[in-house]
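in:
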């Protein structure tokens, strides 16, 4: 979390660094087009800051944030050059920042495509995870669902049923979250609804399941979880 917060603040720090010459060199009388460069730099910094929280892998976010930040610094330096009387050496720095941006974008694209092609984007977990881990892993699962099928299986068991018993019926990339005693969310990576039914039949043959619901992950994980819980609530109302 601290790393993500630092990454979201990084573009603003670089943009302010590019505007720092305004405090040390004489101002120009004409504000145009310096103000336009300044506005562009601020918009780019805000965009890069939002990308720091995008549902992408950490390395892809890192390169995207640095790439957009490089363009933001270039705009900030150009704004400083138009609004103040800068030495020629500082203006050259803007060109260097502009050259760094496409290289960083290419690096992000390479990491993204390599991850999608080889399955490296699978979200990893160990053992039964607590509900707090679900929120932390949600961006990665949502990003993964855009390139590979991800299916959610919500299970209600006896409150004394240990979640570790479910792990023996799942594959290595699949995840189990304990939402509360007897309530488990199984995340099947790379499996559609048909695969989820096979997994459920295997679990039901060995464990006592009170109720279940299945849903492919498409969009926000929180919304999908609320839909699953609504289906189980409707089941209890109509069968009890």
């Amino acid at each position: 979390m601290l790393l993500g917060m630092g990454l979201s603040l990084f573009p603003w720090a670089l943009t302010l660094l590019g505007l720092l010459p305004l405090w040390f060199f004489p101002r120009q009388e004409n504000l145009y087009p310096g103000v336009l460069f300044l506005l562009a730099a601020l918009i780019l910094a805000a965009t890069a800051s939002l990308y720091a929280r995008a549902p992408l892998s950490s390395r892809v976010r890192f390169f995207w944030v640095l790439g957009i930040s490089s363009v933001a610094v270039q705009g900030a330096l150009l704004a400083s050059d138009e609004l103040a009387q800068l030495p020629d050496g500082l203006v050259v720095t803007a060109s260097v920042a502009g050259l760094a941006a496409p290289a960083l974008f290419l690096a992000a694209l390479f990491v993204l495509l390599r991850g999608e092609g080889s399955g490296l984007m699978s979200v990893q977990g160990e053992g039964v995870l607590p509900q707090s881990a679900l929120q932390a892993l949600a961006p990665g699962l949502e990003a993964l669902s855009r390139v590979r099928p991800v299916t959610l299986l919500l299970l209600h068991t006896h409150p004394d049923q240990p979640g570790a018993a479910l792990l023996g019926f799942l594959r290595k990339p699949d995840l189990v979250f304990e939402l509360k005693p007897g309530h488990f969310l199984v995340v099947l990576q790379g499996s559609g609804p048909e695969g989820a039914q096979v997994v459920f039949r295997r679990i039901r043959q060995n464990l006592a399941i009170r109720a279940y619901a299945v849903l492919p992950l498409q969009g926000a994980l929180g919304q999908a979880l609320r839909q699953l819980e609504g289906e189980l609530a409707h089941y209890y109302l109509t069968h009890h």
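note: DSSP finds eight helices and five strands in the chain.
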